[in-house]
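Tutorial handout. Part one gives the primary structure; part two gives the three-dimensional structure as C-alpha cells.
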Amino acid sequence: MAQQLEIEFKNLLTKQQYEHLLQEFSISENAIHRQTNHYFDTPSQAIRKLQSGLRIRQIDKYFECTLKEKSAEHAHLETTDEITAEQASKMLVGEGFYAKEVAKRLALFQIPLENLEVFGSLTTDRVEIPYRDGLLVFDHSFYLQCDDYEVEYESKDAIKGNAIFDEFLQQYGIEKRSADKKIARFMQALQMNKE
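Part two.
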C-alpha cells in the first residue's frame, strides 16, 4: 500500500501539439506504454460527490486500485493497493473488494463496498519523462468514441511546479486549455452519450 500526495498540472493538447511534443522529445514507439483505467462509483455517485475518483489501473500484467481524493486545487491524496489479476477480475464483476487500504479510506466516508460498480473504462497511451525536478507526462486517451490529448507535469512543490509548467507551455507555444481529470472527462462524455 502506498499513500502519497500528488501535485500535478494538466493542459489539453491538440493532436498536432501532442505529435509535435513526441517529436521534440524524440519519443520512440516503445517508450509509449498503454494503461487502462476501470472507474467505480456507487449508483448515487457518492465518490464523485466527494470530488474523488476510484479506479483499477492495468498496465500489462500489473494491477492496482487507487482512490484519489482532492486535497487542494492541484493536489490529490492517492491511496493505492497493488492487487492480482484475479482480484481485479473479481472486483470488476462485483465479487468482492480486495484493496484493503482503499477499503479503509472508503469506510471513513461511509461508502459501502457492495454498492460499488464499474461505470466505464478509459485507455491511455502514456509517455513519462523526467523533467526539471518532476515528471512530464504525454497522454493520448480514448474512451466512448472520444480521443483526447494532454500534457501533465507532476511536481513535489505546487508553486515551483506551476511556474515550470507555465514556462513549458510558453516554450512550446501551447495555449492554456484547462483539463479536468480523466474521470471527469469520461463522465462528461458518458452524460453526452445518454442525452
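Part three, for discussion. The two ends are 39 Å apart (CA to CA). The chain is about 30% helix and 45% strand.
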